[in-house]
Amino acid sequence: MKVKHFLSALEHKRIHQAIRSAEEGTSGQIVLHISHRPVEDPLAAANHEFRKMRLETATDKNSLLIFLAPKSQKFAVVGGTTLHAKVGQAWWNELIALLTRHFKESRYTDGLVAAIEEAGRALKTHFPAGATDRTGQRDIVEE
After folding, report:
1. How confident is the model at residue 94, as a pLDDT?
2. 85-124 burial by CB neighbour count: b if 16+ within 10 A, else e?
3. Distance (Å, whole) CA 101 – CA 106
4. Is 11 helix (H, G, I), strand (E, B) or coil?
5. Is this structure's pTM higher than 0.85?
6. CA dist., res. 88 & res. 79, Å (int)
7. Quick check: 14 pLDDT over 60?
8. What is each CA distance from 10 to 13, 27, 58, 111, in whole angstroms?
9. Does residue 118 contact residue 98 with C-beta atoms inside 8 Å?
């Protein structure tokens, strides 16, 4: 799929709502980062953006970043060290498999929403919290 078709197929409002809902009642943060550049190693690029956005410095180290590189048709998911320790590698593998299944069927928004909902469940289980002020937080970043 061409990049412009991919981006126009994404339902930003639906994704934004899914992130907001997933973050309710948790101290965790979820960010979708869409890179407009080709990427050879999506995991390295995701980790770079995770650090650049200072998500690794979150108090609970429980942030999650979904990184998409449509030009390269690649993606990665990374998270804070405490989140990783709580959910384990099998959970991350399942999250990647969930996204992969949806993406192979060209159901990009559905895949992202499903992954965000799953991330929200994990965050609420391991990092419950009251209302968190996320004023000014960007949950979808395109560069």
Report:
1. 97
2. ebbeeebbeebeebbeebbeeeebbebbbbbbebbbebbb
3. 9
4. coil
5. yes
6. 11
7. yes
8. 9, 26, 28, 10
9. yes
